[in-house]
Amino acid sequence: MMKRIGWILVLAVSLLAGCSSHGPGDSEAKALRVGVMPDYPPLVFREEGKVVGLERDFAEQLSQDLERRLSVHEYTQLSDLFAALKSNEIDIIMSGISITPARQKAFSFSLPYTTIGQMAMIRLEDAARLSTPGALFTGQYRVGYKNGTTGETFVKSTIDAQTQGFNSSTEATTALVEGDIDAFIHDAPTVWNLANKREYPVELLGLYKPLTKEQLAWVMRKNDYDLKQEVDTALKNWVNNGFLMQTKTKWIPVKILSGQ
Q1: DSSP at 143
Q2: What SS3 state is found at 23?
Q3: What pLDDT, in 10s, does the model give residues 165-178?
Q4: Where are the chain's structural domains?
Q5: What's the pLDDT tens digit per position in 10-39?
Q6: Using CA atoms in the order 156, 159, 165, 169, what is the torsion angle rounded to 10 degrees?
Q7: Percent of the chain with pLDDT over 90
């Protein structure tokens, strides 16, 4: 009888242990899985083998506020980034995404954290002919954009000229430096960042006159109501305690963000 009771106790303990055990996927499920496309300096980019930038700092703080470990997932195409969110590979996109009506139909956005505009970057040697108002709209010049962005939408809808899309800002900048295009249109923070680099064989110039006005926010799935509420609450707290402004100023120390 005692032997039988002993076996029953062993079985009970085993069952309890099985209920409380954690599978290999549990840790990742509890993590805040953030999707990025690290080709958007200074918002999110790679430096010395690490993902850094404004969005990385935001992601770090958000994971702390939500008490969830941060897990950063990198993608090379915007379309892959949105597909990953749809398929539940990630929980949120923090990669300098503009709010657009088309995107709002498919996804949920956080409160906006800043306002930007599309701007043009040209070679400094072309400043005399390309920096005059309306020059890029004459149809005489070759204009580049990054595929899948609001820059592409703007260029295709407003510029009647030879246009070319690129999969990354790096490709577009190289084309501009090598003379394959005359201007590259992208978000203001990237134009400011690239135009101030001295690693290119020619000098680049940002035309700091916004061509559009757009709000940046983080992207979640439509049915992730709890996450959206938590994210918006964190963002409101950052506004009140100064973290939002402090972090934006750290990465973009000039007033090119009209939302500042």
Answers
A1: E
A2: coil
A3: 999 999 999 999 99
A4: 26-115+216-251, 118-207
A5: 444 343 344 433 344 444 558 999 999 999
A6: -120
A7: 69
Among candidate residues 7, 107, 88, 89, the one with its CA nearest the CA of residue 97:
107
Output the six-digit token pair for 252: 């973009």
The CATH code that applies to domain 118-207 is 3.40.190.10
Check if the beta carbon of residue 188 is closer than 8 Å to that of residue 118. Answer: yes
Q: Is the bond preceding residue 112 a cis peptide, omega within 30 degrees?
A: no
51-55, 115-119, 218-222, 236-240, range with the lowest pLDDT: 115-119
- Give 93: exposed, middle or buried? Use CB within 10 Å, 0-12, 13-18, 19+: buried
Instruction: Kindly state the average pLDDT of the residues 139-159.
Output: 93
Place of tokens 């496309």: 37
Angle at alpha carbon of residue 98, lines to 63 and 161, rounded to 5°? 150
CATH of 26-115+216-251, one of 1.20.1290.10, 3.30.70.120, 3.40.190.10, 3.90.226.10: 3.40.190.10
